[in-house]
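Can't paste images in this forum, so I'm doing it all in text. The chain is below; anyone willing to post the predicted structure tokens underneath?
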Amino acid sequence: MFKFNGEDGFYEDEINGVRFICDVPDKDTVELAEKFAQIYESKLPDIAKTLLEYGLEHFYGNKTVEEIIDALGTPEIDLDGYNISYYEHTLSDDDRVPVVEYNGEMEEFLSASFEE
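Text version of the structure:
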């Protein structure tokens, strides 16, 4: 069940180890979060490949898909912003946060960035 986080100004929930945030939850948002929680693990190889495609090695050195998956940590999926952020990653000591943009119901990963 989504709860308001007054400090950050959004609603949040965690399902199966996946953290979700949104501006205002509704029935569709809850259903989407539940679906994403079920499919997230199967999408990890594609997420890791997207991070590699967009320059992960520049910030974190050479990594295999498996090493990336193991180091991503808890994802934060922004259901309104269509992105997945990895604030708890252990890719390196670099403070940059890997962020992956997706479309629809994670059918495709469009880009990745490494935000300071």
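The two ends are 30 Å apart (CA to CA). The longest helix spans residues 27-53.
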